[in-house]
Structure formats: C-alpha cells, structure tokens
Amino acid sequence: MLNLFFCLLKAEKRGVFKELTEKVLTEIEKKQIIPQINEYFLEKNKDLWIRCENCYKLTNLKSFESTIKICEYCKYHFSLTSLERIKIFIDPGTWYPMKDEDIFSRDTWYSEDDTYQDDTYQDDTYQDDIIYYYQIGLTEAVKTGVGKINSIPIAIGFMDFEFMGGSMGSAVGEKITHLIKYAAKKSLPLIIMCASGGARMQEGSSSLMQMAKISSALYYYQSNIDSFYVSILTSPTTGGVTASFGMLGDIIIAEPNSDIAFAGKRVIEGTLNIVVSENSQKAELLFKKGLFDLIIPRYYLKDFISELLKLHVFFTS
User: Fold this and answer.
1) 231, burial (CB in 10 Å: exposed 0-12, middle 13-18, buried 19+)
2) What is the end-to-end Cα distance of the chain in Å, rounded?
3) Same structural domain for residues 254 and 290?
4) How do strand 251-254 and strand 294-295 relate by DSSP bridges?
5) Binding site for Zn(2+), residues?
6) Binding site: what residues are annotated?
7) What confidence tens digit (pLDDT) does each residue in 268-285 have?
8) What is the pLDDT of residues 214-231, one digit of tens each?
C-alpha cells in the first residue's frame, strides 16, 4: 500500500493521476489512498489549496474564494463568517451597523480553562470587567445593521458561528430585538441569517429568556400588515434559535446541506439510546417534511431575496 501511495504521488506530478486512479485503484483503495495524497499536498501547499470537508478533494484557494466558498466538485457549502456574508449579500457602501454594535455580555460565567478568555483587553468604561471574545475581532455572535440588497433597503442580522458557536446570549438577544424594533419603526423588511448552536449555556436562564424576548418583538413586528420577515437557516442552526426566531419567518429559507435541528445528534442518541441516521437533520430531508419553504444555493440567494422583496412590495402597495 505504501509503494502504491508513492507511485500515485509520482503520477500526480506527471499529470496522469486521474487516468491512473480510474484504471488501477478499486473503490476501497480510492477511499484509503486519495485522502492521504490530498493530505500530503495540503501540508506542502497550505497557502494554495483547501480540502473540501465533504468530498475531500483539493481546490485552489483563489478559485475557492471566487465561488463564495462552495466546493466546485460536490457543491458543498462551507460556513461563512458574518463579515464574509455582509460582503457577499449587501450592496457595496450601503452597510451601516446598528448603534448597539459593540455591546457584549458582562455577566457570563467561564471556567478557568475556557479558550475564549482574554484578560489582556480591558473595557474603557468598566476597568474591572474582562471582555471575553473569540479571536476574530467580534464582541458578540451577531452583527446587525441596515443595508441594501440590489438597491432595496432592509434591516438584517448576520449570526456568526465563529464566535462561541454562534450561541445566543443576552447581548445577542438585545441586538436582535433592537434590530426588529428598528425595522418595525422604519417599516423595513427584516432578514436574519441564522448560524447558531442555540442558547448560550454559560449565561444560564438569561440566555433562554432571549427566545421569548425576540419572539415577542417579532410578534409586534409581524402585526404590521406591511412587515416581511425572511429567516435564512445556514449550517448549523440548532437549539433555542431553531425553537424561536429561526422558525418564525414569513418565508423560511435554508442553504443546501445545512444541519438544522433542535437537539443535536449526539444529544438525542445519548438521551434516548437510539441511533440517529446521518441525514435526519439535513436540510434536504427536512424540506421534504415541510419544515421550511425553500432551499436556495448561495449562488442565487441574493438575487432571489431581492425578487422576493419586490414581490412583497407589489402585493402590499
């Protein structure tokens, strides 16, 4: 097997790797050898290649970024940060964050070994308080603001899974509630892109209260006949977000192959002692069960939303 591995490396350098693998390797050998070769080249060229999490094929990094982080082979959608989503979906020069952009939770409990701790940064106003934040330049797991999608003004929130798994704490609840109230006041369409592991367990019951808080604000917003709320579920969307504003949209859209659930697979298996199938929480199966309205690939999402907003304006005018 080792000799075969090095033969394939030589074949890759000579440009005949594909032809050789199709003729020589069995399906089992392909599953064993090809990931090893990909790992070898990825280690040697970290700045040039990225490996797909689904099909394990290598993609040129520049090509990967130009396709908005979608695998060119299997169309697997990689996760995006909130800043990347703003760049993709909001018209250039039209994004204005809300005034509460920098608020954060100050009563969060952390263990001594928590990787999110950073005692090198002190807030100017509260010198005795330590700000906990993930090393991506964000103070919370959601960015909220107003902008335009194909020249249509909207109020929009982008959850960011990179910050503590996109968990919903008191600050996240406050920011989303402010966004909803602002959209109601200005009669703007509302869009929330969800990417969350659920309520933030470090904040205890206060994080659970955000479910009711946001849902109440949405009830007030949706009581207006001109309101229009689009919920976009990305991978993963679970827990308290799924159980509250994630499923309250007038239109609910999911990205392909997204993991959408209330309780995670391991939690269900550990609690009920049953085996949960791999695809039971995937967007495609849940769509067939009627859990949401549409599955839209990331390529077409911006244009689809703009057409949806135009249709809404037409029927409410």
Assistant:
1) buried
2) 69
3) yes
4) parallel
5) 52, 55, 71, 74
6) 52, 55, 71, 74
7) 999 999 998 888 999 999
8) 999 999 999 987 899 999
